[in-house]
Amino acid sequence: MRYLTAGESHGKQLTTIVEGIPAQLNLLKEDVNESLIRRQGGYGRGRRMKIEKDLVSILSGVRHGYTLGSPITLAVTNDDFKNWEDIMGEDPIEEDQHIRRQVTKPRPGHADLNGALKYNHRDMRNVLERSSARETAARVAAGSIAKQILKELDINIVGYVKEIHGIKASDIPMSVEKKIKKSNESPVRVIDDSKEEEMKHFIDQAKQDGDSIGGVVEVTVEGVPAGLGSYVQYDRKLDSKIAGAVVSINAFKGAEFGIGFEAARTRGSETHDEIGYDEQRGYYRKTNNLGGFEGGMTTGMPIVVKGVMKPIPTLYKPLESVDINSKEPFQASIERSDSCAVPAAAVVMEHVVAWEVASSIIEQFPSDYMDQLKQSVNEYRERIRTF
């Protein structure tokens, strides 16, 4: 499985081309739209979410509700493009018009300056339009297909908020199904509703101050068989792939599995997950401190991965920077933005993790069509249960 995304933040559309999906997977545009709508929600989102309603068109690879095994094209049209056509259109414009519209003032925390240096752009709109977090809508669209594969294999996944600006949600034992329900009902996408109001207060305070705040999100994947990924090469370790996918999300600065960095403060006897066995379950771990991974492979326990998101860098409280033409200092431009995008980021992270898990399954098992894949996975589950 692989996918490519294309499109700019204020361009005509975002496009995702997905390849390697088994034939005969039940897929409706409503399945994709549900994920896109969830991404646009969450307390602390800015006005742009009211302007753009992300809905998908399936342009290829699906017929009568089922995938064909050929590449799938997903398109999310930007309804606001009519107001940006003069700025983002593909046709040439007069040089003086181009100079007047140039973005020459890089914003701290964004890709503006680094991208301009790398690609030799004097107009940094060429950078910021593609480096925008809006690109994650295209990745959520791809991840929604991966989630359909996992659903067919009885694998459940959910993303939710663990922390916003130092306010930490408690670990409450519950099934993934219950976590899905609780997080979808929560405006801050938290499963510990006792923390909702406090989180909302800090988001409101940040907005009032013209500032932004970040947090930590967590994804749990339940029903994954042991042995996904591999120890034989560094680039086949599934936890490594997931970690890379997590930090590829805009504004994410780190990832950890299970107790993660806390392992630096515990002893080995307190850290590693002891092994048990019974005839019904097969091998299992008595704890899940390592977040479902050993040696780059799944253990059969739930995958538990956290990602940390920095505060959004586009502020109403501008930071200092330097104009690349005049070299004069200035205060970075004020634009509409989110005071906190952590709840929305939980949805994005859920989908990028779903992609990596589903991709690993497709790589490991025969998967030309869904019945073949389901049979192969079920036979594997039974073999390792009785091993």
From TrEMBL:
The organism's superkingdom is given as Bacteria
SUPFAM superfamilies associated with the record: Chorismate synthase, AroC (SSF103263)
Gene Ontology MF, one: FMN binding
Q: Enzyme group, top EC level?
A: lyase
Q: What are the alphabetically sorted keywords of the record?
A: Amino-acid biosynthesis, Aromatic amino acid biosynthesis, FAD, Flavoprotein, FMN, Lyase, NADP
Q: Which InterPro entries match?
A: Chorismate_synth (IPR000453), Chorismate_synth_AroC_sf (IPR035904), Chorismate_synthase_CS (IPR020541)
Record-linked Pfam families: Chorismate_synt
Name the Enzyme Commission number(s) assigned to this protein. 4.2.3.5
Question: Which cofactor is recorded for it?
Answer: FMNH2
Recorded catalytic reaction(s): these are: 5-O-(1-carboxyvinyl)-3-phosphoshikimate = chorismate + phosphate
* Family from the record: Belongs to the chorismate synthase family.
What is the annotated quaternary arrangement, including any partners? Homotetramer.
Q: What does this protein do?
A: This reaction introduces a second double bond into the aromatic ring system.
Under which name does UniProt file this protein? Chorismate synthase
> What organism is listed for this UniProt entry?
Alkalibacillus haloalkaliphilus
Q: Kindly list the organism's lineage.
A: Bacteria, Bacillati, Bacillota, Bacilli, Bacillales
Q: Which gene encodes it?
A: aroC2
